[in-house]
Design brief:
This protein folds into two domains: 160 residues; 111 residues, no CATH class. Helix content is 65%, strand content 1%. The protein starts with a helix and ends with a helix.
Length: 272
């Protein structure tokens, strides 16, 4: 029975066996996490990991093996920096396991504080090198590396990080949004906004800190190559517009929402 058949059978059961040793199938899924067969990768491997991890079917040894493996050079950093190649699927779907691990860790702690910070460090390093921003790839399904990264950052933001670390994540999000590589068209901005809102709910930043962060969205290297410039302008407008609507009804963040509205208005009047 090949992996696909094995996972189809496992998922056909009313519930996963609680006394089964899942070590072998975990290793097979991790080896194949970036296959270009979207049914196997997305519908079977990721779905099975989700059920196994969140459902509490795995031992701590299983969980720690997944944790160690997805952060290594063959997974999170597999051929990092490549664009338009199939290696993105391995990186992106390795990232997608991070929210599963962190969500389960909140329910049943198995990661130390230093290991959670290691995830943060690895994710920020990953984001600084990832160059493949494709959403849906014809015949191969979703790559969606930025969106999966946003989900991982949101999961980290729920880990009670201190303000300095949370601010690191905010600036990492800013760098991704302010790209000249592409215009995000697959709701990546909404998923990054979700991470930002979580950070703001978990931290009480001074207004000056938030104002400085917002100002950086308009401080990029102006080249007057308008096909590049308008990519940044579009990404910033969509992202900050979404953030404004999320914060406008939050009493604790009215000042930030007003600042965002003012900045968007200034940008529109300048470039349109």
């Amino acid at each position: 029975m090949n992996l696909k058949e094995e996972l189809v059978f496992l998922n056909s059961l009313k519930e996963f066996p609680k006394d089964k040793d899942y070590e072998v199938i975990i290793k097979k899924m991790l080896v194949n996490i970036g296959v270009i067969d979207s049914e196997l990768r997305d519908n079977l491997i990721y779905t099975t990991f989700s059920k196994l991890i969140i459902g509490g079917f795995l031992t701590e040894q299983n969980l720690r093996f997944i944790f160690t493996t997805i952060l290594d050079d063959q997974h999170l950093f597999n051929k990092i920096g490549e664009k338009d190649s199939d290696s993105v699927f391995t990186r992106s779907f390795s990232v997608l396991l991070i929210p599963l691990l962190l969500t389960f860790n909140k329910k049943q702690s198995f990661l130390s504080e230093s290991e959670i910070l290691l995830i943060k460090d690895k994710m920020l390093r990953y984001l600084s090198f990832e160059k493949d921003y494709r959403g849906h790839v014809p015949d191969k399904g979703w790559a969606h590396a930025p969106a999966h990264a946003a989900d991982a950052l949101n999961a980290l933001a729920n880990c009670k990080l201190n303000s300095a670390i949370s601010l690191e994540i905010l600036y990492a999000i800013k760098r991704i949004i302010c790209t000249k590589e592409t215009v995000f068209t697959n709701l990546e901005d909404e998923r990054f906004v979700t991470a930002v809102v979580t950070i703001l709910k978990e931290n009480h930043f001074e207004h000056e800190v938030m104002e400085n962060w917002l100002d950086t969205f308009f401080d990029w290297d102006k080249s007057e190559l308008w096909d590049e410039e308008y990519k940044i302008i579009s990404n910033v407008k969509f992202f900050l517009g979404s953030l404004y609507f999320r914060l406008s009804n939050e009493l604790d963040h009215q000042e930030t929402a007003k600042k965002i509205q003012m900045k968007i208005t200034e940008m529109i009047s300048k470039y349109i």
